[in-house]
Amino acid sequence: MSDQRKSIHGTWSSRWTFILAATGSAVGLGNIWKFPYMAGDNGGGAFVLIYLACIFVIGIPIMLGEIMIGRRGRSSPANTMSFLAKEAESSQAWTLLGATGALAGLLILSFYSVAAGWAMAYVFGGFQETSAQAVSSEFDKFLADPAALLFWHTLFIILTVTIVARGILKGLEAWINTLMPMLFIIIILLCIYAMQTGAFLEGLAYLFKPDFTKINSDVLLAALGQAFFTLSLGMGAIMAYGAYMPADQNIGRTAITVAALDTGVALLAGIAIFPIVFANGLAPTEGPGLVFVTLPIAFANMPLGVLFGTLFFILLSIAALSSSISLIEPGVAWLVESLKTKRAYAAIGLGIFSWILGVFSALSFNLMSEFKLFGMNFFDFTDFLTNQIMLPLGGIFIAVFVGWVMKKKDVLDELQIEDGIIFKSWFFVIRFVAPVMVAMVLLYFFI
Ligand code: PFF
After folding, report:
1. Residue closest by Cα to atom 13 of ligand 1
2. Residue 1 confidence (pLDDT)
3. Which of 306, 336, 367, 396 is at 20 to 30 A from 126, Cα to Cα?
4. Among the atoms of ligand 1, which is closest to the Cα of residue 234?
5. Backbone angles phi, psi at 376, to 5 degrees
6. Which of ligand 1's atoms lies nearest the C-alpha of 237?
7. Does the CB atom of residue 230 touch ligand 1 within 6 A?
8. Ligand 1 centroid distance, CA of 226 (Å)
9. How far is the CA of 159 from the centre of ligand 1 (A)?
10. How far is the centre of ligand 1, averaged over its atoms, from the C-alpha of 238 (Å)?
11. Structural domain boundaries, residue 73
């Protein structure tokens, strides 16, 4: 039984803590910053529909698998994979899945931190400008300033490293218990504001009325990648957290709760943002700046807007922090276990790695904007490589490992479930549906 192995990093104090931590990892910039602009860039409703399908058909089943692997291995993803491969009498090459996952986390952190820096800078946004043009040009001015971007990027990495160095089990609980609901309330307020913009229905139609002519291989891969990214799947973050999960917690119910909360926040963010886009004559294809040019307009127009605006960006920055710590945790836990590195040194070392890469991402909006990789600037390239290639590939391997490599009796044992219809359906999805669908989307994109 899994509870005979104990994680050296500790165990969450209660069942609720795991749900909170996993939700903290899942809910972040991916929901409020990335989802709306990805939907905007990829044609709206059709993207949203595919995204939702990916969450339910692929995301939740893989999340279950990832948590299950983590709890059974009770170590960092790399060592967990090594242990479980041994248990399944399979090749130690599976360790690589944990290692590349940890690397993907550091790559994601590099650009995530730059965008989180924008959110932190907007805490001091002022929220006085009501015209779309003025707000837009303020954001462009900000992007053109390398010193400002580097300052906020550095600060965010320092905060992430500090929390991880102290151990992620401390302090998280308070944030997710109180601050997350506050973020939720401000998003609801923004939705109420959006209802009064005069373009609410237009915004909703854009988000939920699928135009199937817009679907192509780019949109499919973007939606799939977004599903992985928003649920923190495919790189071991949830696996690392699963290692700290109490042995008697129901994994299935947990995965569904986390995915539902995450999806709810993303959809509400979209519902708040698109009416503002249309009411102010902005384009949905604004790109990564979309929330930073829409929400300040809303805050400038609403009563107590400065208060709500400031609070919103504080909460968004904290939501980003509760995600970023899970990006670096797989690597840190591995260094602590295998090289006996002090947690603080491991966190600092990996933080510096992500910081350096992030410098290039920050500069890709100004000094290095001419530097392109496959036609993308450095920020977009790292984003594409991780979200749309590394995470889906990681997802395929996780599904294959659970469905084909692990012994079925071990899977059943860890999930503490009967071999009934629920298990059989999930097992079918994890063996066939999820890996085949993800592989098809990737192949379709590249061919
Ligand atoms: N899920 C986070 C978000 O939506 O902001 C980002 C993220 C965290 C992605 C952890 C991947 C990950 F492993």
Report:
1. 232
2. 42
3. 367
4. 13
5. -115, 150
6. 13
7. yes
8. 10
9. 17
10. 10
11. 2-446
- The residue whose two tokens read 């500090």 is 162
Atom 4 of ligand 1: nearest residue by CA position: 30
Instruction: Please name the residues in contact with 37: beta carbons below 8 A apart, sequence gap of 6 or more.
Output: 286, 287, 288, 289, 290, 291
For 168-210, what is each residue's pLDDT tens digit?
Answer: 766 666 666 778 888 889 999 999 999 999 999 999 999 999 9
- How many domains does the chain contain in total? 1
Taking the C-alpha atoms of residue 282 and residue 294, their distance in angstroms, rounded to an integer, is 8
Q: What pLDDT is recorded for position 2?
A: 43
Say how many Å lie between the CA of residue 383 and the centre of ligand 1: 12
Decide whether any atom of ligand 1 lies within 6 Å of the 236 Cβ.
Answer: no
Question: According to the model, what pLDDT value does residue 4 have?
Answer: 52
The residue-averaged pLDDT of 42-51 equals 97
- Return the exposure string of 35-56: e unless at least 16 CB atoms fall within 10 Å of the residue's CB, then b: bbbbbbbbbbbbbbbbbbebbe
β strands within 259-409, DSSP E = none
* CA of 67 relative to ligand 1 center, distance in Å: 15
Angle between helix 391-400 and helix 60-73 axes, rounded to 10 deg: 70
Q: Which of 62, 114, 226, 229 to mutate to test the pocket of ligand 1 (most atoms within 8 A of CB)?
A: 229
Q: What is the pLDDT of residue 7?
A: 83
> Is the pLDDT at 25 greater than 70, yes or no?
yes
Per-residue pLDDT band for 3 (boundaries 50, 70, 90) equals: very low
- Whether residue 395 has its Cβ less than 6 Å from ligand 1: no
Task: Please tell me if the CB atom of residue 31 comes closer than 6 angstroms to any atom of ligand 1.
Answer: yes
Q: The CATH number of the domain where 262 resides is what?
A: 1.20.1740.10
pLDDT single digits (tens) 213-244: 999 999 999 999 999 999 999 999 999 999 98
User: pTM value?
Assistant: 0.95
For ligand 1, atom 10, the nearest C-alpha belongs to 232
d(CA 292, CA 273): 10
Alpha carbon distance 91, 102 (integer Å): 19
**Is the beta carbon of 110 within 6 A of some atom in ligand 1?**
no
The whole-chain average pLDDT of the chain stands at: 94
| C-alpha to C-alpha distance for 394 and 69, rounded to whole angstroms | 13
pLDDT tens, position by position, 49-63 = 999 999 999 999 999
**Amino acid present at 10:** G
